[in-house]
Amino acid sequence: MRAALTGLPFSGKSSVFQALTGIESGKKEETVGTIKVPDERIDKLSEIYSPKKITYAEFVLSDFSVPASKDSAISSKVKNMIQKTDLLIMVLRNFESLMTSDGIDPVSEYRKIKDDLIITDFMVIDKRLEREKKEKKNPPEINILKKLHSILENGDIPGEGTLLEDEINTVSNYNFLTLKKKIVLINQSEGENEVPGDLIELLKKDNIDHFCVSAPIEIELAELEPEEQIEFLKDYGLTESAKIRFIKNSYKSLGLISFLTTGPDEVRAWTIKNGTPAVLAAGKIHSDIQRGFIRAETIHYDDFIKYGSEHECKKAGAYRLEGKEYTVKDGDIINFRFNV
Q1: Interval 46-85: pLDDT, tens
Q2: What is the CATH number of domain 2-253?
Q3: Which CATH number fits domain 275-338: 1.20.120.1810, 1.10.3210.10, 3.10.20.30, 3.30.70.1140?
């Protein structure tokens, strides 16, 4: 899964990127970092199987150094670059900065980014509808575009459930920014955890999740040993690092889960959408497994730990043979049988 950071100048976006990935943003237009998704289940299964290879799920995060123009919060070049991402993370400044004389106003920053996304999509749709008036071809997406046009014209972001899944697929080639999943990340002063109430109300109205970080603290935290990190977090009233909170919020926003595969060669987590049937989950590993799918030999991680082995799970009735339409659950350990 791919995520992109967006934010106004001096929001501390690049520091947030460094805190999450451990990589400093360079002078390139796009800096890309990979975040391994910590998973205690993979750690435990690796202790049991001692595999040659351990593979965690991964998040790819991008940061951009292209400055915005005076007329937009996000440059047109960056808008083109983020079209292929799954998740937009809006970084808002809620701290005093020596780099700017502008006061602290995360509400205004959120509105500027939101309005820019809305205007960008509105102009694309408006132009397409104008063309349709002349051509009168009535393609399948026109009614969907009209619905989105009305929402954006009112200054609103399309909410969850505005479009049906097949409608989203119909207009997917437009890569509308307002239809992407979004999270607000509030970059705070050290030790500050309060969020302005009017910002919370705005985010509730737009149905957008948020979480807070203090980028300098998180960068310092990343340099400590794991046992030292726990005490460091306690000093600031925190229980988890920004990276963990980012992953949890991202998984929730995107509706993601992980199923697991095990063996002496590799223990691995595979990221899929919640609600994915077994045959499509098999395709996540390899298209041949999906094409030749026979069954999914399934044990849930909790049952495996409870009973201690595949053999004991079979005796306890916790080992299941599932077909193509089985909905894979978070934490399922699956061995796919196939024939091609």
Answers
A1: 999 999 999 999 989 999 988 887 778 899 999 999 998 9
A2: 3.40.50.300
A3: 3.10.20.30
Measured CA to CA, the distance from residue 261 to residue 267 in angstroms comes to 6
Tokens of residue 309, six digits = 């082995």
Residues in contact with 39: Cβ distance below 8 Å, sequence separation at least 6, in sequence order: 56, 57, 258, 269
Cβ atoms within 10 Å, residue 213 = 23
Which ranges of the chain have pLDDT less than 70?
none
Minimal CA–CA distance to 174: which of 205, 148, 210, 197?
A: 148
Residue ranges of domains in the chain: 2-253, 275-338
Phi, psi at residue 322, to the nearest 5°? -115, 150
Strand order in the sheet with 256-261: 53-55, 266-273, 256-261, 332-338, 293-300, 320-322
Q: In terms of pTM, does the model score above 0.85?
A: yes
Pairwise CA distance, residues 313 & 50, whole Å: 20
d(CA 84, CA 169): 14
DSSP assignment letter at 206: H
Element (H, E) at 79: helix 76-81
